[in-house]
Structure formats: structure tokens, C-alpha cells
Amino acid sequence: MIVDIFEEEQRIHNEAVARTEASIDDYKKLTKQYGRLLKQLRRSTRIADRTTINLHDSNIDLTDKVNYDALTGIYNRRFMEENLALQLKSLSRSGAYLSVLMLDIDYFKKYNDTYGHSEGDSCLKSVAAVLEGCVKRKPDDFVARYGGEEFAVIMPYTDDSGARYIAEQILESIRAQNIPHKLNEAAGCIVTISIGGTTSAVDHKQKGADYLKRADEALYLSKNNGRNQYTFKNFKEEE
């Protein structure tokens, strides 16, 4: 449409140049045609602006859907795995530490069976908000929903003692919410979590799946030993 407008404008101009004499009526006609073309141009510009804004909003919305968990609003597993791979490449250059925590809500199936899935969703949101509050060094440190009632915390440049401190903070903060859970066998009728963690100086041979596997193994130990606690497992390249 805009191309057509400029072509019409050029045609009017060429007609005016080709004439050696022009009456007042001719100039009035040309002026009227220019006015019409200007209105069309303004309308086309407004349409183009609205289209640009809509595309920008759509791109933001698409990014949210791709990277964030729809229920809790924190990062999803896809983003976590991609970001973890990038972190490993960066950290391996300097041999800096990386710590990974895996977390699971204790007896969450019993929670859903007792209170219903709507309350279960509210519980997941509350736990996600607490985890976000405990992770201070953003955006390097971040929390993601790994799946179901399981979450992950990724902490680059964090050694073993720093990761254990965060794990303890998370345990205490979740307990402090006092979310009722009368069938929780791990604690006094409130929601608790179990945590597994691992820490290592990063080298180029390591993969994100290695860290997640060690942290998940440590999480299993926490759950097997009574839940409502954290356990760390040393990172080994071969096991």
C-alpha cells in the first residue's frame, strides 16, 4: 500500500512538471490529491506501528511460554538444561565451582489426595516462591521446576559450604511457611522438602546430566533416611 502511495505521488509530480502552464483549478486538484495521499500514508504508518507492537508482544509471550513454567512462574526444565550447558562451558574455562540442588516436596501425592489438586497447585506455587526468595545472586543462580513436585537450584561459583548454607536456608524457610500437611510422616503436620546436592570444580568433560544425576542420587538418600533434610554427594567423573 505504501509503495502504491509513493507511485501515485510521483505520477502527480510528473504531470505537474510536464505542463508549461497550469490553472488555479489544476493546483487545487493536485493539492487535494496530495492531501488524500498523505491521509493514506498516515493510516498505513499507524497500521505498521500497531503490527510492530503486536509482533513484539507476541515474541515476549512466546519466550515466556518456552522458558517459564506455566503454573509456578519460575523457569522450566527446558530452560534449566539449556542454561546449565552454557554455564558449564563458561565455568570450565576457569575451573570455577558449580553446585546443583534437587528438591522434592515430601509426600506430595498424599497432600494432593488429602487436600485436592487445586490446593496442590497452591502448594507448588508457595514452594517455588520460597525457593526464589532463598536464591539471592540472580541471574547467575536460578530456580527451575524440574517436573511434578521436583525442583532444581543451579548455583555457579558456589562451593560446597555455600551450597549447604543455601540448602539449610531453604529447609528452614519451607518449614516456616507452616503449610498444613496432616499426612506428612517426615514432620509435624506441615509441608517439608527433601534436598540432594552436589558440588564440583568444573572441567570440560563434565555435562549437566552428570550434576543432575549426582544431586538426584543425594536426594534419594535424603528421602530414604527420613526426608525433611539435605544430603550432599561428592561429584565423581566415573562411578
How would you describe what is shown here?
- By secondary structure, the chain is an alpha+beta fold.
- The protein has 7 helices and 5 strands; from the N terminus they run H-H-H-E-H-H-E-E-H-E-H-E.
- The protein has helices at residues 2-18, 24-67, 77-92, 108-115, 117-134, 160-176, 208-224, and strands spanning 97-105, 142-147, 150-156, 193-201, 230-232.
- The protein has a 5-stranded mixed sheet with strand order 2-3-1-4-5, with helices on both faces.
- The mean pLDDT is 86.
Number of strands: 5
* Global mean pLDDT: 86
Question: How far apart, in Å, are the first and last alpha carbons?
Answer: 67 Å
**Overall body shape:** elongated
Reading the helices and strands in chain order gives: HHHEHHEEHEHE
| Percentage of β-strand residues | 5-15%
List the topology elements:
Elements: H1 2-18, H2 24-67, H3 77-92, E1 97-105, H4 108-115, H5 117-134, E2 142-147, E3 150-156, H6 160-176, E4 193-201, H7 208-224, E5 230-232
Parallel strand pairs: 4-5
Antiparallel strand pairs: 1-3, 1-4, 2-3
Report a brief summary of the structure.
With 239 residues, the protein is of the alpha+beta class. The chain has seven helices and five strands. The chain has helices spanning 2-18, 24-67, 77-92, 108-115, 117-134, 160-176, 208-224, and strands spanning 97-105, 142-147, 150-156, 193-201, 230-232.
Key structural traits:
239 residues; alpha+beta; five-stranded mixed beta sheet; 5 strands; 57% helix
